Amino acid sequence: xxxxxxxxxxxxxxxxxxxxxxxxxxxxxxxxxxxxxxxxxxxxxxxxxxxxxxxxxxxxxxxxxxxxxxxxxxxxxxxxxxxxxxxxxxxxxxxxxxxxxxxxxxxxxxxxxxxxxxxxxxxxxxxxxxxxxxxxxxxxxxxxxxxxxxxxxxxxxxxxxxxxxxxxxxxxxxxxxxxxxxxxxxxxxxxxxxxxxxxxxxxxxxxxxxxxxxxxxxxxxxxxxxxxxxxxxxxxxxxxxxxxxxxxxxxxxxxxxxxxxxxxxxxxxxxxxxxxxxxxxxxxxxxxxxxxxxxxxxxxxxxxxxxxxxxxxxxxxxxxxxxxxxxxxxxxxxxxxxxxxxxxxxxxxxxxxxxxxxxxxxxxxxxxxxxxxxxxxxxxxxxxxxxxxxxxxxxxxxxxxxxxxxxxxxxxxxxxxxxxxxxxxxxxxxxxxxxxxxxxxxxxxxxxxxxxxxxxxxxxxxxxxxxxxxxxxxxxxxxxxxxxxxxxxxxxxxxxxxxxxxxxxxxxxxxxxxxxxxxxxxxxxxxxxxxxxxxxxxxxxxxxxxxxxxxxxxxxxxxxxxxxxxxxxxxxxxxxxxxxxxxxxxxxxxxxxxxxxxxxxxxxxxxxxxxxxxxxxxxxxxxxxxxxxxxxxxxxxxxxxxxxxxxxxxxxxxxxxxxxxxxxxxxxxxxxxxxxxxxxxxxxxxxxxxxxxxxxxxxxxxx
Length: 703
Known about the structure:
The chain is an alpha+beta fold. The strands form 5 sheets. Strands 2-1-5-4-3 form a 5-stranded antiparallel beta sheet, sandwiched between helices. α14 packs parallel to α18 (491-537). The model is unreliable at 1-7, 371-377 and 424-432 (pLDDT under 50).
């Protein structure tokens, strides 16, 4: 189809032919001839041929809009034949929704206006056809006699226009709804030509602010914009350039932009992305790395990082201290596979093969002398080792070795063993079998606590998440070239900063817990030393009367049970009268008190009471008696057993031997006193009272 100017040319040509035709008809009428003039006939045929063979449709109507003529090519456009159209009113072919406007245009043509309009016709098969009509009125002396004009099929053009409109709408939707900022600016003065909605929100720009806006207003540093222009002019584009930008309210944020220059338009357009969160994440990651380095540096545990060839690539200060050397002397110089102490030991070679094949290897404490690494070192160490493979994509790429110096722990264990031997020997030599049994039982309880605490420390070290720092470091090292994209786009990378912060907090708490456990371990050792000292103090033959501070003796008995009472949550209360030293067999008193406190503890353990409580009292009874009582809120004693409990071999405990109260009763009698029991029955607790003579050192009874 032609352009608008071609339609006008065609109309002019038709008008010229019509004038020629009318002139011919007028001459024919005046001469009385009826078309036998050859020249006029020729002109008429030329006009008819032109009308019938052009692509456009030529038509005419009478004053009532009845179609008086239409060129044959109406069939090509509408499917109607020429004879099916002539004689019908043109409104029959107009799409109903366009009829009102067509009638208005017909009226205007009648009034002498030429009209070029676009409307829809109905094809014979019911389809809609878009046409452009160029029509004018035909006037005579009598007035308006009809109209004539041409129709051009513009359906394809309309379809293209609609597709273009939809394409533009889609483009606008994409432009405005893009998840990145889009901008177009004039290169010279920086005038903002277009921005999408996200970019407007990014800079806090309202639509009404766009007029007169300059991109230079949004750079935190004006030199950055000049730098960008220079790069664009030199390279034609700039990619992923990071710069500090400024919003309308003056607040600043980090952005990354990629722009391309269009010289013919003197403009640059591209993408702007707010990377503030990524920058924040990078800062957080940097802080996490610093915390990680700090933790590794301050850790008392040795960390070694090996390459696949066995070369030491990195270590921490604890490792240097353990081997009595410097980082410079070890890193890059020591190799596992060149260490004779390892390669000459089949079990150690097997261990290395496992870990370098991808297994986690835990080695129980073993003794070594680090002469293989530092020849001048002569110290012997007990160490516990754990070796972890570091994998990437399922393949081992590095190995981490964690060495814990457990020399002090081993020394404590040896000391405990020796202490236990001394305790048994002292008990045997003193002849205090019952006291020794109680003391050993309490030592055993403390040793059990020591074992549990030591095990807890070892377990914490074995299961320490410290190695995860190495893994995180590997992930960071692997993605160093694209760290920003990795931390902001990769699902794993996005979690890494928060994970490192959480891990740092976890390891910090873990370190505090290890310190607490170590302090608890030291308290247990100190308590055992106290117990041993007490045992040695009372480890003399029974039957010897000497000046005795009864409070001191009772406190010693309480101390022997202190750890067990604390472990079982039993509260001990004291009620001691302020009494002077007396003459007494302190070893027998100690023996009886150890047994009574132990019985009270067991009575509470076997009861359903929520809060166990033991009361120990010392008081003077009458003029010449001293009473030491131990009461509890445990299971109690049935009335029928109050006397039987002092019989040899009688016991209500599953593992009891029935000798404690029996021997205590005999010992009390031998000291000139007695041992008695009181209870209101089962579930009401019990009280045991030891009475002995109250004699002052000068031999006189206290007054």
